[in-house]
């Protein structure tokens, strides 16, 4: 997206923003060497999020700006983390290009909320454990693959965890991780979550399937979350709107 397209889309989306909204964009994967995997699309998604944030502030709305970073070392289709522990530090990790975007927009970098996927995955593990030990939900079943959430209104089912040796509840799958992400935002006090994702083919290593994000929004609601979720997907050809 060029700057004019970003401005026009930001103007359009900012109107829909409500108070107590977290606006995120720029999601990227850290590679096995501890380096961010960035491209024009992920950068544009952060530019758009920053512009929407600024527009919402000008409208006197209570909003925050966030960035989700995948520090697990895999995407949702893989199971092995390959990040070299010695090559990666979370402190002051924001890429220079993101800092430049904040600077141009006049946004104090200290106001940026960083979400780490490893932390979110840990929260996801606690969510499935609590629901099985404490709530014993009948709509959660287990088979040879892992735990599933059954949709009460359709034949659809959502993979929550994959079976893992010596782990009674398995390894959190992407829908559960995304659900935990939205639920954590709600726990922080946000009533609404707007997330800008770049999902073109040249970002498939980072986001191989955006439907997993949508499934995460569904799982969050099935788990009782009341947060309003709006996913905005940038493609090579335009924009798609997701959950609401």
Structural commentary:
It is globular and about 50 Å long. By secondary structure, it is an alpha/beta fold. The chain has a single domain (3-241), classed as Rossmann fold (3-Layer(aba) Sandwich), CATH 3.40.50. Helix 1 packs across helix 2, helix 2 (40-58) packs parallel to helix 3 and helix 5 (174-187) crosses helix 6. The strands form 2 sheets. Strands 1, 2, 3, 4, 5, 10, 11 and 12 form an 8-stranded mixed sheet that branches. It has a 4-stranded antiparallel sheet with strand order 6-7-8-9. It contains 6 helices and 12 strands.
| N-to-C SSE string, H for helix and E for strand | HEEEHEHEHEEEEHEHEE
Provide the structure class: alpha/beta
Care to count the β-strands? 12
Quote the CATH topology.
Rossmann fold
Mean pLDDT: 88
Strand content: 25-35%
Gyration radius (Cα, Å) is 18 Å
Q: Residue ranges: pLDDT <50 for 5 or more in a row?
A: 78-83
What count of structural domains? 1
Work out the helix count: 6
């Amino acid at each position: 997206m060029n700057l004019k397209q970003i401005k026009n889309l930001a103007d359009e989306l900012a109107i829909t923003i409500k108070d107590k909204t977290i606006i995120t964009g720029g999601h990227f994967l850290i590679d096995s060497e501890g380096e961010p995997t960035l491209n024009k699309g992920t950068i544009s998604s952060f530019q758009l999020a920053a512009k929407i944030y600024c527009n919402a502030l000008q409208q006197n709305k209570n909003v925050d700006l966030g960035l989700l970073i995948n520090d697990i070392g895999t995407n949702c289709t893989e199971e092995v983390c390959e990040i070299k522990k010695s090559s990666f530090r979370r402190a002051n990790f924001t890429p220079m290009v993101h800092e430049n975007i904040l600077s141009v927009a006049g946004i104090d970098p200290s106001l940026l909320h960083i979400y780490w996927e490893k932390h979110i995955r840990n929260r996801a593990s606690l969510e499935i454990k609590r629901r099985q030990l404490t709530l014993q939900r009948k709509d959660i079943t287990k088979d040879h693959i892992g735990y599933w959430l059954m949709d009460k209104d359709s034949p659809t089912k959502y993979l929550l965890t994959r079976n893992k040796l010596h782990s009674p509840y398995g390894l959190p799958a992407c829908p559960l991780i995304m659900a935990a992400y939205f639920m954590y935002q709600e726990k922080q006090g946000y009533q609404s979550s707007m997330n800008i994702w770049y999902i073109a083919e040249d970002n498939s290593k980072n986001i191989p399937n955006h439907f997993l994000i949508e499934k995460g929004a569904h799982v969050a609601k099935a788990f009782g979350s009341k947060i309003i979720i709006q996913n905005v997907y940038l493609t090579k050809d335009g924009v798609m709107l997701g959950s609401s």
